[in-house]
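G.,

No rush on this.
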Amino acid sequence: MTKTSNLIPVLAAIIRRDGRLLLCRRPSHKRHGQLWEFPGGKLLPGEELADAAKRELREELGVRVIGVGRLLFEQHDSGSPFLIQFVEVAISGVPQPLEHEQLAWVPPDEVVSYDLAPSDRAFAVLFLTRDPAS
């Protein structure tokens, strides 16, 4: 991987419920508009992943984070200064599309059939197609 010290970290929350994963459709006016992604957002300077998860998921989905797990995968989003970091996150509450056009709870083995943002696709191909129970 390229040098990551100058990259801006971005949380991508892997949220599971009833064996499904939460995907969100990006608004048309944003980078990768209309593509599906795992929810999250940019970390503020000095912010830890757990704090970013709490802030971003409250803002984007109106939910409360009750647990933040391990870093599963990270990838530089080509053509941007962003380092996307995929992290397991547990929530309480019912997600609402406060900043996205649409939400979907998707079985892990069907995630790759969605039109995903590039880094989200890389994560899905590497982690979700190997073992449907992952």
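When you get to it, here's the other one too:
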Amino acid sequence: MRNRWVGRRAVGTWLVLGAVGLLAAVAVFDALRRAPSPVAAEEPAGAVRLTGDELPAPGLLEGTIVFSDLRECRPQELSLETLTLGPAGPSVGCNLWVPPRGGTAAVSLASALGGRGSVVGLLRLGDPPEIVGELGVVRGHPSWSDDGTRVAWCTAEDHTVVLDVEPGTRTRVDGCRPTIAPDGSVLTRPAALLTPTLLRDGEVLLGEEELLRPFPRDVQGPLDVVGFDVRADGLLAVVTVRFESGRRPSRRLQLWRGGRLEQVIQLPELSLPAGAGRLGDRVEFAPGGRAVAVAFPRSGMQMVVVDLERGEVVLGPVSQHGFAWSPDGAWLAISNAEEIRILEPGRGGPEYVLPLGAEAVAWR
């Protein structure tokens, strides 16, 4: 009798334990079903994944595309590692200037009174981007140091201000159209047009005598420095234009190093309406220095790419609303307002297409 009771009690115990185990398994399954997947958890709130046949595979290209949305001029970031769009920032001006590194960019806020530039603010990149300060009135394009710690711009009073972002200190440099060189010096040119002079930290680096060397000596006409950039190894790219009576202007890319002229490349002369700026107002070495992009300063205007080894134009003229070199210098992103094309200059048509309407583009 006692053995039968013990047997029944054992069976009851196993039934209770089985029921408890089943309930626990159901609870675990429900928790797993409700928990977000690991992929979704890694993406920021509001992230959108791009899809399409012409997109690069996730992670094939390095870095992040930062752009200003064409419709509302809201800054936004696209991760090329995951092909996901982060949340958009505030609706501001469409012009956007982003350093290769660092967490702060510059963005236009409004047009300045009298048309002498635009009011530019500091934008903290993140999820989402947000305005954190103001530079003041900027003429032309600000220039960032590679590490994003300094930014320089031409003021309405026709001189350059250099801001050290973290301490907030400002210094003044003579000239306009600043470019912060990799060695920390600041290249400018005099604010007045038709001034064949390039300055470094306010002192003459190249004057008219040097810059006239690539042009015929038997032809008279004023010379002007249009734009410039400098490579990490000290190679200096200067776009100059010579105005000759009865002829179209002659525009040339001069390459200098240590006071010696190394190479001269003829550039096309593109005619645009007055006020559109000039080809060469924006000059930008590709990282690695194998090519140089030469462009008009405003969106919707044309650009060309010069291969330094071949000594010739290998892309363009092509219309663009913004362009940016990849961090390794192998690829070029060009916005035509409706989409961003990513290509290898000199190797045929576009390789990839991002379905993003962008007014300004950076790649970091």
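Residues 1-42 have pLDDT under 50 and may be disordered. The chain is about 10% helix and 45% strand.

Enjoy the weekend,
O.
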